[in-house]
Structure formats: C-alpha cells, structure tokens
User: Which sequence fits this backbone?
C-alpha cells in the first residue's frame, strides 16, 4: 500500500509541474477527435463531480488496461508518469452530444482508485468487472466482489502476466448449488 | 351388505381418528382427518343422507382441511414434532379421565333418550318423510329454523371480520409499486407512443 | 443541471442507496448460510430463492438471487458469469481482421452490431474512411438485424408471459430475415460480415427484391402481434405499471437503449450522435411515457416499424461503388488478382497470417444496438493485434436495473421485468 | 437411416409411423417397443447456453418444427427430460451446474453436444471455457457448426433417434456406466491446480 | 342403495345380466376415458401446432396419432425417483389422489339415451331398461363438486411432499386458486339447480330436452362464469399458475418423473375431458339433439354429446394458444372480486324470477328491479375496490418515502 501511495504522490507532483493544456483542472489530450482527461486517482472523484455538474450525466463505461508489456506509450501528456494499470472511464453529455474519456494511472502493484458509485451507481457492475478481471481495487465500492468468475477463483485473467491458455475443469462442491 | 359397509367404514373412521392423534407430522394428521371425514360421508350415504354426505366432502374435506393444510404449509410448521414433551404435567392421564367421562355421559344420555341405537335410515326418519332429503333439509333449515340459521350466519361473519382484523398486519412494502390510475389511459397505446424528436 | 430539469427527470435517490437498497449485496457463502438458516426464515418470513442459472425464463444462464417475502420480491441480485467466455482475452491474440469473428459471438441476437462497433473503432484507429456503399450496406444489414433482434424479443417476451404462440410467431418472422442474412453473409448468425475496411462481400444479385419482400411480409405480421398482444387485456395487465423506472434513475444506472427511452428520455445514438449515414435518413425515435414493461415492449415493437422505414429509404439511396476500401494494407486483394500478381499474393499472405498493423493509440466508438449503447474500446500498441479490446455491452450494464425494477413485485412480475430488459447473456458475460 | 419423412406424402405415413418395428406390431418384442417409444418421445430439457440455444429454439419453431418427432415438449424440470442439448459454450463457472443438471436427469438420458464450443471449446481456447463438454458429461452425438443450423441439429437428433432405436446407445452406456465412470476430483478450485479427469471404461 | 339413484335398471330384480350391464358400463367408461385422453393429448398438440403454423407430431404412427402412446411407454420405462427430502408416503400417494377423482366424475355424465317425450333418457339394453351413464345419484352435481375438491389434494400434496421450494410455491398457489374458483363454480352451477329443480345429472339433462338449454334459460352469464372458473379449476392456461413453467419451473410436479409424472399428465387431460362433459351436461343439454335419421336413433345422442365436448376441447386448446398467463394477484382479483360477486348476483336474480313466477308477479319489473339492484351492488363493490387500491398505493408510497 505504501508503494501505491508513494506513486500517487509522485503523480501529483508530476501533474503540478505539468504545463500543457488542462481541462477541469487536469491534463487533457486528444485522441482521434476524442477528448481524454488524465486525472490522478486522488483527483478522479473531484474531476468527475465537476464533469457531472457540467452536464456529463451518464457514466457509460468503466474498464481497465494492463500496460505491462507496453510501458512506453506515447499518448500520455508530457510529464505524466505511466503506470502499469490504467482505469478508463467514459462519460457522456447528452445535451451537447459530447463524450469525454478519463484515463487514470491506477498504480503498478496494488492498483487503487476511488469508486464512482456515489456519483454514478451504474458503475457498480463495471467496477466489479474491472476488479474481477484486472484486480483493480475501487475504494468505497458497496459490493467489492467477483462478478464474472467464480468467487473462489484465483488470479485476474485479463492481466498480461496471466496465461491465456486452456485450464482444465475446476470443480468445487461449494459453487453452483440450488 | 349394509353391515359390511358399516363395519368397514367404522374401521376407516376410527383408524383415521386415531391417526390424527398419533401422527407426528401435522400434514399427516390432516390427511388422517380427511380419511375420517370420508368414512363419515359413506356412513351418511348408508343412512340415505346423500346430500349431507356430499356436503360433508365438499365443505370439510374440500375446503376446511385444505385451509388447514394451506396454513400448515404457509407457516412452515410442517415438521414432525416430538410428542414426548408434556407442556402441562400430568396432562395425558387427565385427558384420558376427562375424555372417557364425557364419552360415557353422552352415550348414557343417548341410550336413555332413544332407548338404544335404532339403526333407522333417514329415508324413513322424520326429516325424509315425503320428498327428497335435500328438499326436506332445506325446508327444515330455512322454514323451521330460519332465525337460528341467520343468527349463526351473522356470528360466522362477525368471526371472519374479527379474524381479518386481528391477523391483518401492515408492514414492509406491500403490493406491486403504486399503480397509478393514469397508467390505464389510452395514451400508452404504442401508436401514440412515438415521439418525434 | 437546472432544477426544472431535475423535476422532469424524477428523483434518483433509490439507486444511490447503499443500505436498504433493492440490490441484494450478498455473496455466495452468505446466501447459502441464509438458505440453510431456517430459523431466520421463521422470524421474518423471508427466504432466499435462487432462480437460475438454468431456469426457463432467465434467458440463458442468468441467475437471480431473490430475497422474498411470500411471493413478493424484496431484494435481488443478478449473478452473472455463467457464460464468461474470456473474449476480451481471446481478442488480444487475434489480429484485427480476425477480431470481428470474436466479437460477433457476443450479442448473438444482434451480431452485426458488435462487428460494426469493432470495425468502426479499428477504422478510426487506422484513420480511414470506408466507401459510401459499404456504409450503406452496413446500415441496411444493421437495421435488418435490429428487426430480427426485436422480433426475437417479441417471441421471448410472449413466451415468458405464457403466450406460447407468440414464441413461434416471433421466430417465424425472424427466420425470414435470417434467410436474407444467409444469402448475403453465408451464415444465419455470427456472420463476420462487417470487417474493418468495409464488408466481407457485396450484396448478392436480387437483394433488392428480397428486401422488398421482407418489407411486405413483416408489417402485416406486426399488426397481428398488436392483435395478439398489445390489445390483449391480460397482456396489458401483466405489463402495465410493472417494473417502473424514472429517467433520472435510468441515467444514474447508465441504462441505455429501450430501457432509457421507455422512461420518456429520448436518447438514440443514431439521431443524437449519428454514425454511418443515419443523418441522411428519416426516422423517429420511439420513446415511452411511464418507464414500465409495457413501454419497453411497445418501444421495441415500434422500433421494428422505424427500422423498416429506414430500410425503405436505404433501398432508394443505396449508392454504387466499392463495398470495401481499396487499401492494399487493410483489405485482401480480390481472388482473381492473386493468380496474376505476386504482390497481391504477398499482401494476401501478410494480411491473413500476420494481419495489418494499426498505429498506436486508443479510441472508443459506440453504436446504438437493439439493447442500447454498444461501445468498443481498443488500445493499440502498433502491432497487428489489439493490445486491449473492451466491449461495453449494453446488456451487461442494463442488467443493473433489474433489482430496482423488480423491487416489490411478485415473481411473475420479476419474469416480465427480466424479459423486458432483454439481456443477452453472451454480451453480459463476454 | 436418418431421414425426414416427406411431409405431404400420406402414402408413406403408415409405414413411417412404426418404422423399426419391422414385424407385426402385436408380436413385437417389448424391448423393441420400448426402444421405439424412447426414440419417438425424446423430451429435451430446456437448457440453452449461448448462440446455439437461439438456433435450438429456432429448430423448435415453425420452419423446422421439432414437434414432428414429438420433441416440442421442452421440460423445464430435468427430472422429466430425456435429452440434454448442451447448446453453447460451457464456462468453468457453469460446468458444475451442468453436471448437476445431468445428474438430476433420470435414466435413460442422452446428451447432444451442440456446436463446436460445447464439443471442443471452439475458438475460445482460454481460461474461461471448458474445452469440450465431454469432460463433464458423456456425450452421445456431436453436432458440428458454429452455430449448427437447425438442419444440422435435426440431423444429429435423428442420428440419436436411430442409435436409440438400434440399441447402440444402450450398449455404449452400459460400458461407461451411464456417465458415472467419468470421475471428478473435487479439490479446491484454483488456476494452479489442474484437476485430473479420468474416464474409466470397463471393457 | 340410493346412491346409484334413479336408474331403472336397479329398481327391479338384480340378476346376472344387470350386474354384467353395470360392469360393461364401467368398463366402457374407463376404456373410453383412457382412449379419449390419448386422443386429446394428440389433438391438443396437433391443433396447437396448426395454430402456430407447425406440423405437430407426425412420426409416431399415422399422423403422429401414437405420439401419446410413445410418451406413455417411455415414461413407464423411465427411471423413477423419490427425492431424498421428500415425504415418501405422501409423494407416492399424490398422483393417485389426482387421477382417481378424474375417473370418478365421468361416472355421472349421461353420454347418450333417449330424452325425447319425457322419456328420461331411458334405453333398453338386453331387455333391461337403463340409463346411459354409470350412475345417477340424486346428488349428481354435488358429487362432481366433491370429487373435484378432492383433486386439489393431489396437486397440493405433490408440491408439499417434494420437499423443495418451487413445488411448494406451486402447491400453495394451487390450493388458494382452486378453493377460490370452486366457490364461483358452485354458484354458477346453483343457477342450473334453480332452473332444473334437481341435482341429478339425468334430471338436468331431461329438463333440457326441448332446446330449452340451460345456456339460454339461465341467461348465458352463469355459463361464462362456469367456463372461466372451470378453466381455472383445471389449471389450464391462462390460469396455469400452478405449473407456470416460466416462474416455477414445473410447479408442483417439478420433482416427479417417470410413471408418477405420467399419472399427473393423464389426470390433467382427463380433467379437461370431464370438465367439458360436465359443462355440456349442465348447460348444453348433454346428449340432446335432433335425430336426423330415424332408422338408428340410438346413435345420435352420443354423437351430439361428443361433438359438444369436442367444441369445449377446442376452446381449451384455443385459449392455451392465445392467452398469456395471469399474474397470481390478478387471478385472485378475478376470482373474488368479479366472478364470485357476479355469480352470486345472477343467482339472486334467477331466484327472484322464480319467486316471481310462483307468485304471479310481472317478470319484467322483477328483472328491472333486480338488474338495478345488482348494478348498484357492482358499482359499490367497484368503488370499494378502487378506494382500497388507492389507499394501499398511497400507504406504500408513504412508506417508501
């Protein structure tokens, strides 16, 4: 945990130094005509609150990306420290027909971001999915549990260091009772 | 032949009654009760009281015991009970004494008043003189004893109202979400549902 | 947001609750303990009932954990993952050309939409524009697919309410659309027809007549559905006022598609953020009024009519030209060229073995599938396979509305609600 | 043998009706009669998983109509079903439940593995999908395709009917003890400890 | 014995021929019912297929007519199971409780006989005068009500004894449903008693021998109520909540397999046939109908009877193919708030008319006054129901906030 906190602080320091274009107080870039914001995990709730007040009324998607084998990506704003795990949140503004995407550098070993449940309860399942498949912790989530895989599954299969291949049938007397 | 039927029915009635007492499981007890009621219905037929026999089955077996079962299943008390426990000490011997004395009293009274079991079937009894037994029964109830019948009906109605008042319990979310009256408007027909943006 | 607008949308308070929420937040062990704990049952007459995952009305393998009092549903929790296929992991091992094969198996009732979302995303990453004919073919096929998907809904919805004939009728009409699909794509479902760069093949000869025939067959059958269902008192009784949701709740729960529109909130990506050529055709966005199951049913029924309207216009507006982009790097050469040209052979070989490289970057593109917003998020590291491919399945998100819609209803209402949300488990579990 | 009788052809109906009972109906052996009835009344369990389930339902609908073979009686309760059509990919999470449902079915019971995902995992050779449902339950007929069209499914159903009627399946079943010979090691679930699945055949 | 009633066969000496005739009747009724059920299942599957643009069973036997036989044999030879958590004795008993009443009811239905010229349906067989029904007890229709109330036990105990949740829910539903609708059923039949003045089925049919069918004389309403309540009593769609496949998997018979399940299946369809037969007897004049060819007069009554029964069977299948299922509370509302008050009101109206006839009052005044009173009552009831609904809704609303 301490490592994560340290890295978070590091990110904050970096963003303070950041001199590029900002929007809602956080660095902003553009990817194929799509607006991408880059808040730090600690800034996430604040940014999303601002966005929500600004008419972004729906959280369309929450997912995560594991950049283990692709560390040197170029599309981050200069000065932002890339981390292994990134949480991607898509919001939509119905009035203006605009989308915005937030890419949060969640950390390397114990990726942690605050849960958006209190702002958008619709993110509950998506955050559970991100935990299930990537092991990203969402602090303050009301039901932080696996959603797609069995409760007693070990590992997070969409991480890049997890095998793709065939795993024989697993049986457990506990699951699947009626 | 009638004697044979009588003996068989008596055996059914008695074994059923005994079963009600002995059965551990309330559902089994209720089933034994049905058995008893059936036996009695056949006994009624033997006495040519066919209407009574049918009503016995329709009302008692068809409605009342079903309600018993309904309650038993709904409340989930359908588990076998341990009969070894006596909530009131000495209740069993006491029951035997009181029960047998009441039985003795009734039998004595009956034997004195009608001078022994007659075995007369109802087709020749007072109720059935002239006309079918349904008609006579109706006549007896709704001509001769109308006041008593109505009084009983009133009593039962009061009992039902009382039971509902006592048992009604308002807690938690009730029925489906508030059904607004407007929902039944014609507006919700799909033809009118299109909203051109 | 102004106050007036909030009033219009309603109060979303219910969905924000952590405690006393309609969502049953129990895990497996706690639920099993509650099931075994018979004393607890006696105390407050509540019981935990498991519905599924092989229950006839749970549309495949959805499992619901219901907390019931008698037959009234108090809280519930959709338990999913029984069809988890690991498609997002598989996608990382497939090239961009093969990717459509993978995503098409997600929403198996409307496979073309997943292909479309995937292809549009890849095209955006590649910065290419497909020829107009490809765009219009895509629109034609997608709208037909929307028709077949909604017909399937009509069938299953009828079945879930006990109208057995509706099941057969819905399938009968769907079969007509599938025949056309088979003619065009070679398959009845899981077509892999829309690919990055265009579509797999041009429309076959006589497609216009086939589509016209469909346009003739389906509308009168929809009238029959109206007679059998819409005007049916029992049917209306079963659906009206059941599973009500207001627009604010739907927005908060990120519900899209017919669920959002049923609350009276007009939001359709085809109109409000047009893609393909939807800004060139005329159609209506169907919205409901009360946000109940009946509205969701009626919206789907009328969206079939709207789709047919669009298809009619496509028949007139369909341009001539290429059905896929003429870019050697992305599209394989025609079969005849391979025999003549060494270069074509090499291109063909490269595309089908290694695949084409896509510039580094990440992008999210969404389309309006029959179930709501279907989005595709792809991260490319410059290689021939997507570094990460994520599909935002509308069913997956919409499923969160179930506990809120079912709260306080009877089991039978629960069945109607599940049916009206119309989840496709392949897309939920991916 | 697997043939669909010409539907409009009423001349053949009488002969088709009791096909397999070649000799006189009255003097037919009881065993033949039982086999005939099992083949003619093969009630499937409602058990759909993925894409194939849609095609399975399409097979039951108007254009293909499984009812012709007395099979429109899809039973929701596995106790009353004779045939389990595993229609679609079987995930690791679903596998124990599938086996449980199979165990709840009464003998004699048959299994059709519909589609490549159920038969072999198909294109999804990854952590989530069971690579072939025959690891969990004994499969009698495999239907190829992704998804198999209604014709393919019907062909596999008719093949099953033929095998039931010829007694082929009953013989095979005796060898593997009705699927009981598939042995499952019930050790705790984890990705690291693969479970041994041994198929014992007493031959 | 009075229970066998007014059959002239038993009024004289009971010799061997008489006993044989009685046995023959029982045998024919039994065999007829079994064959009819077999055909009924086939008929239903074939007809519903037709309504759904399908072909239906066509492989087992000519036109699939042996489909039911195949199902039966298969179920007979299937592995049987008694669930571990079940109550073994009751579990085994329940199917028979369901089946036997279904058989018994058919005994009181007159399926033929000559009812012309106040003949009372008497025919002459082997030199003995007899009725074309197994028994004609003086309480005939009450016997039907009694047996049908026993049939509830089969369903209810089957659900309970299975020892699992879905069947239990099915059982509780069924008992409530059947009791509720039995009241409406009984009240609608009561109007027939008023018109006929007898409970005996033979007597009721005799009263309708001159096209004065009870359908008309009781004013159609009781007939409609009888058909609706009868459908509910049979657990047929749209009232098949007991089995409700979409909600309760299989309802009360979820845990049953093999032969025991077949018995339930059999009982269900047998009940459909007997209910149709009773409806024909009570409202449609039973076997009465014109004798078209005088040469063989005895053949016509059974033909008319089966034709009328066939119409009912068709209607039951039609309902199943068309209507969605009611919800449980809607079912109860229909039973208690509409059918029972309506049948009660109509019963009182008919009774008033009867008294008017006896006393020589003007019948149109009675009808006018009666209808007014009934509609006032109906309005009052509707207002009460509506008020309760609003009250409950507002209460729930307050509690929610």
Assistant:
């Amino acid at each position: 945990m301490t490592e994560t906190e340290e890295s978070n602080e590091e990110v904050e320091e970096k963003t303070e130094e950041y001199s590029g274009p900002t929007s809602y107080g956080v660095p902003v870039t553009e990817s194929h005509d799509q607006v991408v914001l880059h808040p730090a995990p600690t800034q996430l709730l604040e940014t999303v609150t601002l966005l929500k007040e600004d008419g972004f009324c729906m959280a369309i998607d929450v997912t995560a990306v594991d950049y283990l084998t692709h560390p040197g990506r170029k599309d981050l704003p200069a000065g932002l420290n890339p981390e292994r795990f990134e949480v991607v949140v898509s919001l939509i503004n119905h009035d203006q027909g605009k989308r915005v995407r937030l890419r949060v550098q969640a950390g390397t070993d114990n990726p942690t971001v605050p849960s958006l449940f209190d702002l958008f309860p619709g993110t509950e399942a998506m955050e559970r999915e991100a935990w299930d498949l990537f092991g990203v912790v969402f602090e303050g989530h009301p039901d932080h549990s696996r959603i797609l895989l069995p409760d007693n599954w070990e590992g997070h299969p969409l991480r890049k260091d997890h095998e793709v291949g065939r795993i024989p049938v697993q049986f457990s007397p506990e699951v699947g009772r009626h | 032949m009638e004697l044979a039927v009588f003996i068989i029915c008596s055996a059914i009635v008695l074994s059923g009654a005994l079963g009600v007492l002995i059965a551990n499981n309330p559902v089994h007890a209720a089933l034994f009760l049905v058995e008893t009621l059936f036996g009695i219905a056949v006994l009624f037929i033997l006495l040519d009281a066919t209407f009574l026999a049918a009503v016995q089955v329709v009302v008692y077996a068809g409605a009342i015991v079903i309600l018993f079962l309904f309650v038993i299943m709904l409340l989930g008390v359908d588990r076998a009970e341990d009969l070894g426990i006596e909530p009131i000490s000495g209740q069993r011997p006491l029951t035997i004494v009181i029960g047998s004395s009441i039985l003795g009293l009734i039998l004595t009274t009956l034997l004195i008043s009608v001078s022994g079991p007659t075995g007369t079937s109802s087709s020749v009894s007072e109720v059935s003189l002239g006309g079918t037994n349904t008609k006579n029964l109706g006549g007896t109830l709704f001509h001769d004893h109308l006041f008593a019948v109505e009084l009983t009906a009133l009593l039962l109605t009061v009992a039902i109202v009382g039971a509902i008042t006592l048992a009604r319990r308002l807690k938690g979310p009730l029925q489906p979400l508030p059904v607004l009256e407007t929902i039944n408007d014609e507006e919700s027909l799909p033809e009118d549902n299109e909203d051109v943006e | 947001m102004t106050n007036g607008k909030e009033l219009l949308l309603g109060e979303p308070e219910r969905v924000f609750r952590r405690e006393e929420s309609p969502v049953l937040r129990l895990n497996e062990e706690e639920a099993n303990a509650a099931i075994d704990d018979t004393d607890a049952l006696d105390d407050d007459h509540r019981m935990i009932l498991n519905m599924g995952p092989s229950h006839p009305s749970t549309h495949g393998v959805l499992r619901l954990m219901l907390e019931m009092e008698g037959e009234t549903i108090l809280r519930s929790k959709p338990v999913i993952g029984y069809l988890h296929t690991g498609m997002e992991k598989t996608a990382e091992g497939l090239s961009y050309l093969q990717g459509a094969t993978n995503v098409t198996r997600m929403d198996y009732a409307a496979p073309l939409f997943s292909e479309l979302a995937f292809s549009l995303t890849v095209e955006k990453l590649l910065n290419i524009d497909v020829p107009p004919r490809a765009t219009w073919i895509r629109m034609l096929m997608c709208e037909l697919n929307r028709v077949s998907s909604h017909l399937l809904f009509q069938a299953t919805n009828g079945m879930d309410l006990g109208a057995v004939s509706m099941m057969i009728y819905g399938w009968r009409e769907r079969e007509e659309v599938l025949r056309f699909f088979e003619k065009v794509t070679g398959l009845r479902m899981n077509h892999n027809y829309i690919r990055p760069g265009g579509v797999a093949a041009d429309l076959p000869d006589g497609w216009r007549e086939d589509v016209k025939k469909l346009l003739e067959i389906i509308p009168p059958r929809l009238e029959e559905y109206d007679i059998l269902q819409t005007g049916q008192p029992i049917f209306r009784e079963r659906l009206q006022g059941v599973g009500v949701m207001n627009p604010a709740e739907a927005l908060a729960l990120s519900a899209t598609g017919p669920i959002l529109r049923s609350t009276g909130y007009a939001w359709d990506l085809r109109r409000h953020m047009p893609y393909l050529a939807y800004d060139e055709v005329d159609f209506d966005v169907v919205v409901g009024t009360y946000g109940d199951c009946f509205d969701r049913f009626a919206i789907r029924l009328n969206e079939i009519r709207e789709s047919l309207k669009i298809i009619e216009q496509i028949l007139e507006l369909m341009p001539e030209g290429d059905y896929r982009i003429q870019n050697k790097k992305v599209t394989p050469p025609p079969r005849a060229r391979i025999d003549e040209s060494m270069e074509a052979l090499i291109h063909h070989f490269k595309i089908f073995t290694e695949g084409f490289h896509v510039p580094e970057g990440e992008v999210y593109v969404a389309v309006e599938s029959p179930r709501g917003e279907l989005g595709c998020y792809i991260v490319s590291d410059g290689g021939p396979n997507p570094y990460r491919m994520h599909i935002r399945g509308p069913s997956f998100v919409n499923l969160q509305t179930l506990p809120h819609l079912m709260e306080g209803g009877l089991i039978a209402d629960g069945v109607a609600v599940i049916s009206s949300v119309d989840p496709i488990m392949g897309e939920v579990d991916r | 043998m697997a043939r669909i009788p010409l539907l409009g052809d009423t001349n053949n109906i009488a002969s088709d009706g009791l096909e397999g009972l070649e000799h006189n109906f009255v003097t037919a052996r009881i065993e033949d009669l039982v086999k005939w009835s099992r083949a003619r009344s093969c009630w499937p369990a409602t058990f759909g998983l993925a894409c194939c389930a849609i095609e399975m339902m399409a097979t039951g609908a108007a254009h293909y109509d499984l009812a012709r073979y007395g099979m429109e009686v899809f039973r929701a309760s596995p106790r009353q079903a004779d045939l389990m059509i595993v229609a679609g990919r079987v995930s690791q999470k679903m596998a124990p439940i599938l086996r449980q449902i199979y165990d709840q079915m009464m003998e004699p019971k048959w299994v059709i593995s519909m589609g490549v995902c159920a038969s072999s995992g198909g294109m999804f050779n990854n952590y989530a999908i069971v690579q072939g449902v025959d690891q969990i339950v004994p499969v009698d007929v495999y239907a190829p395709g992704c998804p198999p069209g209604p014709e393919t499914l019907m062909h596999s159903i008719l093949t099953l009917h033929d095998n039931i009627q010829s007694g082929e399946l009953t013989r095979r079943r005796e060898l593997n003890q009705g699927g009981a010979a598939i042995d499952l090691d019930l050790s705790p679930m984890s990705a690291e400890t693969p479970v041994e699945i041994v198929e014992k055949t007493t031959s | 014995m009075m229970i066998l009633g007014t059959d002239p066969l038993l009024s004289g000496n009971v010799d061997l021929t008489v006993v044989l005739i009685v046995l023959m009747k029982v045998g024919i009724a039994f065999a007829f019912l079994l064959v009819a059920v077999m055909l009924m299942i086939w008929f239903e599957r074939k007809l519903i297929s037709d309504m759904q643009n399908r072909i239906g069973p066509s492989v087992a036997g000519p036109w699939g007519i042996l489909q039911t036989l195949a199902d039966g044999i298969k179920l007979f030879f299937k592995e049987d199971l008694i669930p571990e958590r079940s109550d073994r004795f009751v579990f085994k008993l329940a199917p028979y409780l369901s089946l036997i009443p279904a058989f018994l009811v058919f005994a009181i239905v007159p399926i033929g006989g000559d009812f012309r010229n106040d003949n009372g349906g008497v025919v002459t067989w082997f030199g003995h005068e007899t009725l074309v029904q197994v028994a004609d007890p003086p309480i005939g229709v009450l016997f039907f009500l009694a047996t049908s109330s026993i049939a509830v036990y089969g369903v209810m105990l089957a659900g309970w004894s299975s020892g699992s949740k879905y069947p239990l829910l099915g059982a509780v539903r069924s008992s409530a449903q059947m009791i509720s609708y039995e009241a409406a059923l009984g009240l609608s039949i009561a109007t027939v008693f008023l018109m006929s003045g007898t409970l005996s089925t033979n007597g009721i049919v005799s009263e309708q021998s001159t096209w004065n069918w009870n359908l008309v004389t009781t004013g159609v309403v009781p007939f409609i109520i009888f058909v609706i309540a009868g459908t509910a009593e049979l657990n047929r769609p749209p009232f098949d909540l007991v089995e409700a496949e979409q909600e309760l998997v299989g309802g009360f018979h979820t845990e049953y397999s093999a032969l025991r399940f077949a018995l339930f299946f059999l009982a269900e369809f047998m009940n459909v046939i007997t209910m149709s037969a009773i409806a024909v007897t009570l409202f449609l004049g039973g076997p009465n109908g014109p004798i078209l060819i005088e040469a063989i007069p005895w053949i016509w009554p059974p033909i008319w009877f089966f034709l009328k029964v066939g119409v009912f069977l068709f209607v039951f299948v039609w309902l199943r193919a068309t209507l969605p299922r009611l919800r449980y509370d809607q079912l109860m509302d229909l039973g208690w708030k509409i059918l029972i008050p309506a049948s009660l009101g109509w019963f009182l109206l008919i009774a008033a008319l009867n008294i008017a006839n006896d006393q020589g009052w003007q019948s149109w005044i009675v009808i006018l006054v009666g209808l007014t009173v009934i509609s006032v009552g109906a309005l009052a009831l509707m207002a009460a129901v509506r008020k309760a609904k609003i009250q409950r809704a507002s209460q729930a609303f307050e509690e929610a906030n």
Notes: Residues 12-79 of chain C form one domain. Chain C touches chain A through 54 residues (CB under 8 Å). Chain C has two domains: 12-79, 87-325+358-392. Residues 132-160 of chain C form the longest helix (29 residues).
